Amino acid sequence: MTTCECETISQHDQSPGLVADDERVCRGAFAPIHYNKSGIKAGFIRPAHLLAGELSVWRIDRNQQFGLTGAREAIGATRQTDHTLEELLAASAQRIRQLEVRDEEDVPGRRAFCVVDDCSTTAEGDWHPEHAAIRMAEYDDFQWLDGSDEFTTAKELLFAVFKQSVVWKASAAT
Amino acid sequence: MSTGTYTRYTPLHAQHFLADECGTFLRCFYQGSTQSHVEISARIVFAVSAAIEQHGHKWHSCVLTAPNLEAPQASSTTFSNRMEKVRRDLERMKDRWNGPDSMAPSAEILSDLDNVLGALPEDTATPEVEVEDSGGLTLRWQAEGASSSLSLVFHGNGSALAIKTSLGEPAFAISRRLDVEQGNAIARFLARDDMLAEALVHG
Hints:
Helices cover 24% and strands 26% of the residues of chain A. A six-stranded antiparallel sheet of chain A has the order 8-9-4-1-5-10. Chain A has a two-stranded antiparallel ribbon with strand order 2-3. A two-stranded antiparallel sheet of chain A has the order 6-7. Chain A has 174 residues and is an alpha+beta fold. In chain A, strand 2 (35-36) and strand 3 form a beta hairpin. In chain B, 42% of the residues are buried. The longest helix of chain B is centred in the middle third of the chain and has 14 residues, at 79-92. Chain A binds chain B through residues 36-39, 41-43, 95, 98-105, 109, 147, 149-150, 152-154, 156-157, 160-161, 163-164, and chain B through 127-130, 132-133, 138, 140, 142, 149, 151, 153, 155, 161, 163, 165-167, 169-175, 177.
């Protein structure tokens, strides 16, 4: 797996360390905005946030004291008043880093995502040590463009991978 | 018309084989009783039948529906029926359905959708349906625990972006832009991969 330069250099001065391959990161899905009749929508991954390099995720394995409970509380604190946190979906950093958009089935393709230790939780300078971000991998000769086939394909792949692993459900917790 | 049985996702393969042999006659092969029927001659039927058997598959009653043939019983559980309801719901959507900037799927998107639905077999599982704020439409088949998924993304430009995600280790995705007016383009994309065909049937 190619390591992107942005993953080898800390992205925040308060970072507790780079995101290791075996760490899981999670995202929260809120009702009603992230759901439709079929269940969770791909819209829970915001294209604009991915392209801006700041799709928010939380590290649930680095600090046992924080863990899933800490992530649930931190994500829940960001919700708007008419939204409720319904599910947490997770994947390991390695799995996300290995995701590829390919032209052919058996031929290695283009790595799509980086997972970085960006602790910033708001544009106003708020931060949290267990906060991280997923961003599009950068290339000299290629650019991910919103609406392009390559970007749409990568986004669907990331969504499918997160959907595979629901690590917490509000309905199961009550 | 005498009939036999298919394995569950054989129709996809059959449609692929038939594309070369029968051209436009192909579509009648999958259309259910609720969609427009196409005349099909005995000669073509034999060609179709031979092509299928040559690949070790058998005939199926439900996939042959033409005016002079035995049509399947209408059932509320067929893919066509289920998708008709989805189609009506999409058609009723209005702009601003999800805030001031959101748009309903355009007539062009619905037309492209119709073309694709007509090319899918009747044993297709009901997909997840997602409308973006831009009006873009995605049909998605991803069963819990399945090793692959399929998405068809529409933006009303006469094509659909077909995305296969393979969820093994490592996971990857392949996409192809397909001309929706050529039903066999969709069928060919699906037929080349058994796992994909299975995802389509089992949802």
